[in-house]
Amino acid sequence: MGSNGGFKLKKALCSSKFFWRFLGVICVLFYPLLLFWFSAFQCTDSPRSVFETANIFSRPKVFSYKGDLLKLGTSWNALTFTSKPPQKHLKIALFVKKWPAKDKAGGLERHALTLHRVLAQRGHQLHIFTGLPTDPSAAIESDKSMHFHFTNYSDPVNRFINKEEAWSKFQIITRQVGGFDIIHTESVALPHKYAKGLNNVVATWQGIGYESTHSSIVQELTRDPADPRTPAVDKELKDHLEKVIQEIRFFQNYKHHVGTSDYMGDVLRRVYMLPVENVHIILNGVDEDRFRADPGKGRAFRVAHGVPLEARLVLGMSGRLVKDKGHPVVFKVLRDLFSDRRNSDIFVLIAGDGPWASRYKELGPNVKVLGPLGPGELGDFYNALDLFMNPTLRAQGLDQTTLEAMLCGKAVFATHFGSIVRSAIVSEEFGYTFSPTHESLKKELERVLEDGKRVLEKKGRACGKRAALLFTAQKMAASFERLFLCIAKKPEDTVDFCTYPLPADTI
Prior knowledge:
Rossmann fold, 2 domains, 44% helix, alpha/beta, six-stranded parallel sheet, single chain, 18 helices
């Protein structure tokens, strides 16, 4: 480079334009690091470790929101609502495809049961429009505070709600009670053609077509390349894509939407293009009286099922033992695990039934398939574990089993799906996540073994604290109650329940 070139370079380097560009690059590259350093070493009453500081933003804590609740972009569970009896009692109509038989149900029905029992206990008038159960008297007897309106089932096997008949009964009951303040539908139990034009309809989604499409893609990618893709799989992929398009169109007929995870709320607003003020995030909650930490019951459960108390680790899974719950991938990893004699002091408890039950029994005495457990046994089951595993390949909603285990103070190990990592396992402080492949699952399980029981106990305590603040039935019901009161407000009401905080709210 000649002297002239050197002069030009020096001039460029010394120019103000270059200085500001250089400063901008430095800020972009090092601002996050500086922010982290400042947070880690700033003066506090109780010094934090670097690891704790890194996770401070993932910890559940009430934030100071002020304003219109319908414009809240985050989870309602993070707010604190008054625990006092409501100033106003509502007449609520619930449409749900079927009501649980003796507390046994899938996630959608369990959500309906848990939520509306609490609302009924708080004095709201509940009318349930659902399919005719096998034993109607048992349902009525177990929930005397609710009014049931059963329909002749449209599905002879699953005894689902007859939607047309339910709507006819709803119209009759509406006239009898003088109108409903809120019409709540779990998924599409109330068809969108009936919901159109009604401003007091709230639809709660445990899963949507967008997530189903993701699930189909995941399951296709986990297929052995040696196995040809069947026409049925091709049709399923196409059908799921079409379902998303249909949902984007008809979801507009429902006025208000509840996403049961942070991720779903984002998808409803961004992909389904629903108005921000009509989408509300209320995380799933589970019965905190049934699911809570109880080491004594956990030890008794281990003894009852032949698991040594001195076992190095006890892992567990629950639910349907079917392909789309990830069991083919887990089976392969566990087979590798127990092929090593050094792991003879590790045990696996599996609560549930399905095609993969017999396969798991092939892995030897350290894998115990317990079959379906009753509601009273599930809490003891979780307490017996060191780690709960949820290897599902279905990316639908916020799985209640994960929340139940967290509420029992257990670390969790789950598939890296949006709903899970955005709402439950939001950092390594609470557990482990993996991509739904054999390699990824195996790698994370090796991390679990390396971390050991002490680390799992620490993660479990963090899970318990997070779940107690966000995932209880009372927290979920308080959020739904406030949403319903807000939507049902009338001009003559003296309290604007859409405003937060109200004087009665505990801040």
